[in-house]
Amino acid sequence: xxxxxRELVTLQVGHYANFxxxxxxxxxxxxxxxxxxxxxxxxxxxxxxxGITPQRQETYTPRLLCIDVKGSxxxxxxxxxxxxxxxxxxxxxxxxxxxxVDLIQQLPExxxxxxxxxxxxxxxxxxxxxxxxxxxxDDSSTCSRVPGNHxxxxxxxxxLTKSVKVWSDFLRPHFHPNSIYxxxxxxxxxxxxxxxxxxxxxxxxxxxxxxQKEEVEDEIIDRIRHLAESCSSxxxxxxxxxxxxxxxxxxxxxxxxxxxxxGSKDSITFTTHPLHLSPRTYQARTLMQASTIQSYxxxxxLSGLLVPLNFRKHAVDFQVPCVTFPDLTLENNxxxxxxxxxxxxxDTASLAYRTRTSPxxxxxxxxxxxxxxxxxxGGSLAxxxxxxxxxxxxxxxxxxxxxxLISMSAGCDFRVDPISEVRIIRGISPSxxxxxxxxxxxxxxxxxxxxxxxxxxxxxxxxxxxxxxAGAKDPVKITPPFPSIFSRKFTEDGCxxxxxxxxxxxxxxxxxxxxxxxxxxxxxxxxxxLTSAEKLEVTKIQALLxxxxxxxxWSELVEDLRRITFNYCVNNVDMDSSDDD
Length: 581
What we know:
With 581 residues, the chain is of the alpha/beta class. It has helices at residues 15-30, 113-126, 204-212, 214-229, 247-261, 282-302, 335-349, 362-368, 393-398, 449-460, 523-535, 542-546, 551-566, and strands spanning 8-13, 48-52, 58-62, 64-69, 180-183, 193-194, 200-201, 236-242, 266-272, 305-309, 378-382, 406-407, 418-426, 466-472, 476-477, 509-510, 512-519. Among the domains are: 8-76 and 166-360, Tubulin/FtsZ, GTPase domain (Rossmann fold, 3-Layer(aba) Sandwich); 379-520, no CATH class. The longest helix is centred in the middle third of the chain and has 21 residues, at 282-302. The N and C termini lie far apart (55 Å).
């Protein structure tokens, strides 16, 4: 019997969550295979759906709802351009009466080079067919004969670090017209605290109150229902959410709805922390801290599995240093760069439940990581893997090498008291597993990297109580607009080049590993939250009072967080809530 594709619906809530999500959907589109001579281990039908435009063109768009605040899109229309062809500019002659007409036009948002190239490519692809033109837009094809000899966007090199202001500035795939919902920020009843000259923040209570407004809740619920009804066998939801601002409250409202209407479905929530926001005032800092604490506490109650994504080494201290990736260049003040690494983690970790052969059900992933009522897990990423071009995977491991996994979750040391984990290794083809001159023991045969890696881990280290190793032969495809973050010691296919002959080579694909981990190391993150919550005096902070917080409500929240933290302490005893910075 053929495998049944059990679909997933993705929800992205908040501006930075949409930065991560945009990179993620870009990575997925880059991994599409158009050449019949190639194969892929990725089943995109889990997250994408087929459709058709009014012009009878077939579409393939994400099962996605993005929630953000008005003013967050720049040049992108909320309904996109796939189902709404570009209309000619209006003129005074279009008026339906003969009197004088004043034509007031708003200047269009300026587009960067990448978006202009995408628009030109779309015009060629979606425009009227011309049999006299020989145009090949397919990224994987060898032909690229287009008017003016322009390279397609996937083959050009862009530097978007300074030009990207919002996530739609580097969005490659088309979305369905109902995929984007913008909240009217005039409905947010809060005294916003200023982060810097250009940014302000609002808190968890304001976000939850906004979601409860009838027009907002009805619109979000309707869009979720339409996404769910488009699935033939819905298995659950993926949620990306801000936690530092009011979008955490919006997510809490969404999760309440999912629990009420889709209680039998599983969910995995990834919480995102932006590195580029550094609150300068005490009011802004405490408001962001309180929102983060509330979001973790409330969202964890309703999520099947919660995975924090934060590069800072402390969950609510915005001045501490960030983790470093030895082979990557990460600028702390760039949302565009930092979110790309988070997206690689999500793209790789999610392969556990979206491969073509023997995908794990999302329920299996959640169950394996939520023993004893613990549903907060840490993430890790090794990018690139570190394998050199002349080595087989087995030889590389036997020489004492291992993927250098970096924690993706602030304050979490996934190596401490491990209970269970799911590891995903990708980008190692069968021909790269074992060198042809390597002799294996009788009866030993490796069909894929996950099988070989699993056997190695069993022999080389003390395993947790449960370990699942999954994999895919597809590497991460590094195509524009993914930023240039790799050091120059890697070849085009992401292998280590110890001779440094790759000084001028851009990495176009890379093998890597991601991990989801459950264990005692998660307690350090929760301890950070609890310590900060206990120190916060809401009655003395005007920004928190304006958000609707009071002493009794905060005390109840702290008790909830204390119970959650207590469940992660060794043997549930000797919990120390002191700050261990």
